Amino acid sequence: MSVCYIALGSNLNHPMQQLNAAKNAIDQIANTKVMHCSSIYQSKAITLDDEAQADYLNAVIQVETGLSADVLLDELQTIENRQGRVREKPWGERTIDLDIVLFADQIIATKRLTIPHCEMKNRNFVLYPLYQIAPELKLADNTLLKELLPAVSDQCLNKLAEFNE
Fold first, then answer.
1. How far from 65 is each of 52, 79, 94, 141, CA to CA, in Å?
2. How far is 111 from 157, CA to CA, in rounded Å?
3. 159 strand-pairing partners
4. Which range (99-113, 131-145, 147-161) has the least confidence?
5. 108 contact partners, CB below 8 Å, separation of at least 6
6. Catalytic (active site) residue 55
7. What are the CA-CA distances from residue 33 to residues 2, 97, 127 (Å)?
8. Model pTM score
9. CATH number at residue 61
10. Which of 94, 105, 112, 141 is catalytic?
11. 99 in catalytic set
12. 50 an active-site residue?
């Protein structure tokens, strides 16, 4: 079994419900178990243009899985599709976004998948929830997670709630 971390985000169609539905669906993936969940955080949308978007709700979950990273990605994209994810433009609004940010101690760089997630070190809405559930985490390059926090501000990031059970 591999330990991995998945970032969840939503800013459309009742985001809190979208996050809870995705977490529950991930827990139903064969040979995969949700082990820990961060709190749910609210953050400002990151956009490529000046188009206004609703704030996002974000969280990170830790799972143990017997699946490969590619098969887990397939399962996560199936969940996104079932929850109405539409990929109209990069960094656009979405019902649900499920990103594998870390997969065991692997470094993966394929056309389809980059682990560690290429933007995780720049995103407070990933790093702070990840730190909440894994404060002693060391990345594959031996960087301690807590060393990354000073580079991102926790401004515009509000802890809202815990996941529903």
1. 37, 16, 26, 22
2. 31
3. 41
4. 147-161
5. 69, 114, 115
6. no
7. 10, 19, 22
8. 0.92
9. 3.30.70.560
10. 94
11. yes
12. no
